[in-house]
Specification:
Its cofactor is heme. It is found in: Endoplasmic reticulum membrane; Microsome membrane. Belongs to the cytochrome P450 family. Keywords: Endoplasmic reticulum, Heme, Iron, Membrane, Metal-binding, Microsome, Monooxygenase, Oxidoreductase. May be involved in the metabolism of insect hormones and in the breakdown of synthetic insecticides. The protein has 284 residues and is an alpha+beta fold. It folds into two domains: 57 residues, no CATH class; 156 residues, Orthogonal Bundle (Cytochrome p450), CATH 1.10.630.10. 47% of the residues lie in helices and 13% in strands. The chain is built from ten helices and ten strands. The strands form five sheets. Strands 1-2 form a two-stranded antiparallel sheet. The structure holds protoporphyrin IX containing FE. The site of protoporphyrin IX containing FE has 22 residues, from α4 and α10.
Amino acid sequence: MGYPIHALEKSDSEYVKAHENMIQKRREMYRQRKQSMLSETGSTDNAPHSEEAHGQRKQLAFLDLLLELSEDGQLLSDADIREEVDTFILGGHDTTATALAWMLYLLGTDQTVQERVFLEIDGIMGGDRERHPTMAELSEMRYLECCIKESLRLFPSIPILSRTLTTGVDIEGHHIPSGTNAVIMLYQLHRDPQYFPNPEKFYPDRFLPENSTNRHPYSYIPFSAGPRNCIGQKFGALEEKAVISAVVRNYRIESVHRREDLILYGDLVMRTKGGLKIRIQRRM
Ligand code: HEM
């Protein structure tokens, strides 16, 4: 996946220094924490993933896990760690933010769909609009999940993918040689009427289980597919559910612009000229 050049080109700049300092501080914090855990449990076990205190297994944060892997064996240098963290932050930020913006916009274009989302969420969460949903409650929000999938169908955060062919392939009588750069237009792929009748319509029901069973597995790939697909797919989808459900529990959304008036452009992620504008109104 490519990232904006300006984020990576400052290899000699303050950006790198700031990250190096941050990694050093974090490494120090990590060592201290590990030391205090070992003395709490009386354990002498220094093996990775051995953080156990009060009988409860503690999960390492992503950065701590990378630090642990690089502690003695020097498996990863600080520069390697910085690159891994950059990849996760860049890969997980704009994509999720874009998906959230499109989801809110689309909900605001269709009050009938939005009412169904209200009904579902209120049914699951009850009257208290302030408390956070549990994981079990989030997984019950099936219609909201369909809305998120439908939004990523119409406006995939990453609208274009590319791969270099490592072997030649024959497709319908045409030979495509090894080394060719193949571009996959997700925006177009997701509008194939064979799999998505009336493709421009925002219709979340098409993702209900009974409507998706015979669909070609590669007709819908907002997180790409194969060995280099999105590593944060589940987390990204969960983040979307948590944020959207928190917003619509309290607010009704109305989109300012009609879909036909939007001017789309691809800037690594799918954007519109002038942004996506919505109005929100507190729900009674
Ligand atoms: C709605 C949210 C997201 C969407 C639509 C999305 C989409 C994608 C797509 C299409 C790719 C493949 C790019 C390619 O093949 O060239 C990808 C790769 C990747 N994504 Fe996501 N992503 C999302 C959220 C996240 C999150 C939350 C994280 C991290 C926490 C993440 C981390 C990554 C990484 C590290 C890769 C590169 C994987 C590799 O090359 O092996 N993504 N994402």
